[in-house]
């Protein structure tokens, strides 16, 4: 059974003393928001790749909104935990500290996502699965390393980014644990396929020792070999994301004309319940204003419902007996499922989204083919290392271009850091230039 004192204050970690300007968790938030990987989210796909409309969400605006919801959920959970556990009252933790953990972890939840959204994850994985240039690396990698490469996962890339000191982040263990929704490596068999925490994987092979150290410090038990329980606050981070993408993707879909105003209002009204008033809604003159007020009311309702489920389930979270999405247990779960089903049909599979995702596949495959070939020839097939390869390598970040390791996996991890860290527009621009489709401005 997990213990909140160790989960929030692992060995060697102290709460902020009274009078300090910032707690450690506030520092976590600030370090994330000022980091380059977070800043790049301003031009990464949320739903609509390369959006031309200023009202469509990017990964940056989505992350800020998820963090705001996460802070509310975390602060309410903190109030509950400090009241329930007298030992926590003897620490210097405050409810806003726990809110800060969830807010920071939620802020970073998409920090490892590549360009072009989830299509970008599939494009990277498919490059190693199917493309001849990708497959030539197979014999240079272990089975575990190859599983990482053929199953690229934004959550695991985010874990790597948060640990990479060159990004200047270096967050605390509680925030890193709350960030990790899927606490196992790619190749570890899921302890139980029905457990939410085992749905995906959360870190790459070369970060396994980092996560094992984290669990040792925080006394997080294993479910099976190399599979751990979630930190309980990770459920709140997940819930904040679930709330935002369901409600706000629907709002974007309505604004784009993919879902009717009437249908959107009825879906949000089903969540708002008795507080929904058609008469009051008509007082707002514009459609955007109507959507904005309904969105705010729906999110507030979902926060209240999720908070109640967290409080009721908290003892089971500590033992690992509860392992499902909090939003699957709230009264509005059926309404969220209806929104999700409609979004898949009307938004995520709409013509503009599918067309731009298809373009994203071509862009990422082209970049990986170009840079992957140059790296492979330089390190493993020098007789084929050409002047073109040499020019291509000079476009890579200096730390990767100068990497002398003869081990393939570090080279490929560095290449994927470079490619997955690109914004959508930069990936498209670089693809055009390295393929000779366009030339740099002179």
Automatic annotation (TrEMBL):
Q: Which InterPro entries match?
A: dGTP_triP_hydro_central_sf, dGTP_triphosphohydrolase_C, dGTPase, dGTPase-like, HD/PDEase_dom, HD_domain, PHydrolase_assoc_dom
Q: Entry's SUPFAM superfamilies?
A: HD-domain/PDEase-like
SMART domains the UniProt entry points to: HDc
Any single biological process term in GO: dGTP catabolic process
Q: Name one Pfam family in it.
A: HD_assoc
Q: Name one GO molecular function term.
A: dGTPase activity
Q: Where does the record place the HD domain?
A: 59-246
Alphabetically sorted, this entry's keywords are: Hydrolase
Its recorded name reads dGTPase
């Amino acid at each position: 059974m997990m213990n909140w004192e160790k989960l929030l204050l692992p060995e060697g970690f102290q709460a902020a003393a009274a009078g300090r300007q910032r707690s450690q968790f506030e520092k976590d938030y600030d370090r994330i928001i000022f980091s380059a990987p977070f800043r790049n989210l301003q031009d990464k796909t949320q739903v609509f790749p390369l959006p031309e409309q200023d009202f469509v969400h990017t990964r940056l605006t989505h992350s800020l909104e998820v963090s705001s919801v996460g802070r509310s959920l975390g602060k309410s959970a903190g109030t509950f935990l400090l009241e329930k556990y007298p030992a926590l009252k003897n620490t210097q933790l405050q409810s806003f500290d726990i809110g800060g953990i969830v807010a920071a972890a939620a802020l970073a939840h998409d920090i490892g996502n590549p360009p072009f959204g989830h299509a970008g994850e599939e494009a990277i994985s498919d490059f190693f699965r199917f493309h001849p240039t990708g497959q030539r690396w197979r014999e240079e990698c272990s089975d575990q390393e190859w599983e990482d490469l053929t199953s690229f996962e934004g959550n695991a890339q985010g874990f790597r980014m948060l640990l990479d000191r060159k990004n200047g982040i270096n967050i605390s263990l509680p925030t890193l644990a709350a960030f990790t929704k899927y606490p196992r490596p790619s190749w570890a068999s899921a302890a139980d396929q029905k457990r939410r925490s085992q749905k995906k994987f959360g870190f790459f092979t070369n970060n396994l020792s980092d996560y094992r150290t984290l669990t040792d410090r925080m006394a997080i038990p294993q479910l099976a070999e190399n599979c751990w329980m979630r930190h309980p606050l990770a459920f709140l981070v997940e819930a904040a994301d679930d709330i935002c993408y369901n409600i706000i993707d629907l709002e974007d879909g309505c604004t784009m004309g993919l879902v009717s105003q009437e249908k959107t209002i009825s879906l949000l009204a089903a969540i708002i319940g008795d507080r929904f008033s058609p008469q009051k809604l008509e007082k707002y003159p514009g459609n955007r204003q109507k959507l904005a007020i309904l969105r705010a009311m729906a999110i507030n309702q979902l926060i209240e419902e999720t908070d109640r489920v967290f409080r009721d389930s908290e003892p089971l979270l500590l033992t690992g007996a509860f392992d499902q999405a909090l939003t699957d247990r709230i009264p509005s779960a059926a309404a969220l499922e209806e929104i999700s089903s409609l979004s898949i049909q009307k938004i995520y599979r709409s013509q503009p989204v599918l067309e731009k995702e298809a373009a994203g596949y071509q862009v990422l495959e082209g970049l990986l083919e170009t840079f992957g070939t140059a790296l492979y020839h330089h390190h493993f097939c020098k007789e084929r290392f050409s002047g073109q390869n040499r020019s291509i390598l000079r476009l890579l970040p200096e730390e990767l271009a100068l990497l002398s390791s003869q081990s393939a996996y570090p080279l490929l991890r560095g290449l994927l850091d470079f490619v997955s860290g690109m914004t959508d527009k930069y990936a498209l621009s670089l693809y055009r230039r390295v393929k000779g489709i366009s030339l740099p401005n002179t």
